[in-house]
Amino acid sequence: MYQLSHTGKYPKTALNLRVRQITYQGIGINAYEFVREDGGELEEFTAGAHVDLYFRDGRVRQYSLCNDPAERRRYLIAVLRDDNGRGGSIAIHERVHTQRLVAVGHPRNNFPLIEGAPHQILLAGGIGITPLKAMVHRLERIGADYTLHYCAKSSAHAAFQEELAPLAAKGRVIMHFDGGNPAKGLDIAALLRRYEPGWQLYYCGPPGFMEACTRACTNWPAEAVHFEYFVGAPVLPAEGVPHDIGSDALALGFQIKIASTGTVLTVPNDKSIAQVLGEHGIEVPTSCQSGLCGTCKVRYLAGDVEHRDYLLSAEARTQFLTTCVSRSKGATLVLDL
Questions:
Q1: What is the pLDDT along the chain (337 residues), one digit of tens a residue?
Q2: In terms of DSSP bridges, do strands 120-125 and 146-152 run parallel, antiparallel, or are they unpaired?
Q3: Are 206 and 124 in contact (CB under 8 A)?
Q4: H or E segment and range at residue 266
Q5: How far, rounded to the nearest angstrom, does the alpha carbon of residue 262 sit from its chain's CA centroid?
Q6: For 25, which of 107, 151, 159, 247 could close a Cys bridge (C-beta 3.0–4.6 Å)?
Q7: What are the angstrom distances between the C-alpha of 172 and each of 146, 153, 177, 194?
């Protein structure tokens, strides 16, 4: 059973924040407001940022901050209960109550808003509204031109409708309810068929939604497209390795060489680079374990990397890999450790 920490296993730099308020936002969705115990100001964050929530068993989950970045005395997240997930959302829904102290990480942003664009298109699928809502607050504050398309199963499944209603009345926010059939919702392909120089696109949502957005924006330049996954794909064996390999075959894998010492370690197909490093006393910070946050990235000096993260740019991938999900296409990777 997961329990959120207020003591125990979490970084010494984590913030002990009080849960001041919990609000129901839609079917299975609660919003949680965190404040300092002394009521003081919190660390500044930018639109698209997230924080880590630490659990007593050492696991960490990331949640996007969805309030106005100009607010300095609270952090707001929204959590969709997922009974088929990894347990974090259930623990939050069942165990986090008002007045409780929770260990919260400092804000980090892997999904920043590019300001100054002539037009911004934001696409939210379900709980993917959370980082985009913070972007909307910022875009409103600076008077930018944007449109948010919010896709959900029904009105009852859409969060923050009361806050977004005035913007919907102005045409800034457009709601799309498909009744559970995406074919009856927003035509993403038609929407993204048009691109104008300087436009910027942001999208976040469940896997099927993300796939639809990715397919639809192939005509957009890479520098104009920004996205954030909130669920990583399962970590599978390296390409070409059958999923039904026997226990003996699990010893197969690839090797990593530590540049500073020359130590060579084997990474079997059932373990990550981060796990193997940790087993040999080489600690690399980890967080999401899904290639979503970049906490565990390290520089590599040689080798052919099979990148499985959802974060690093094409340029960054020429120098860095994420030790939680990256694999090797060849026999050896040399790490700058």
A1: 455 655 455 667 889 999 999 999 999 999 999 999 999 999 999 999 999 998 877 778 889 999 999 999 999 999 999 888 777 889 899 989 999 999 999 999 989 999 999 999 999 999 999 999 999 999 999 999 999 999 999 999 999 999 999 999 999 999 999 998 988 999 999 999 999 999 999 999 998 999 999 999 999 999 999 999 876 544 444 443 333 333 333 346 889 999 999 998 988 887 889 989 988 999 888 777 778 788 889 999 999 999 988 878 888 899 999 999 899 988 899 999 9
A2: parallel
A3: no
A4: strand 264-268
A5: 34
A6: 159
A7: 7, 20, 17, 18
Please name the helix (run of DSSP H) or strand (run of DSSP E) that holds residue 148, with its range, or none.
strand 146-152
Tally helices (H) and strands (E) across the chain: 6, 18
- How far is CA 17 from each of CA 33, 77, 273, rounded to the nearest angstrom? 9, 13, 33
Three-class secondary structure of residue 231 per DSSP: coil
> What tokens does 95 get?
């165990």
According to DSSP, the residues that pair with 320 across neighbouring strands are: 299
Q: How many CB atoms lie within 10 A of CB 206?
A: 16
Does residue 324 contact residue 291 with C-beta atoms inside 8 Å? yes
Could you give the domains of the chain?
A: 15-104 (2.40.30.10), 120-229 (3.40.50.80), 248-335 (3.10.20.30)
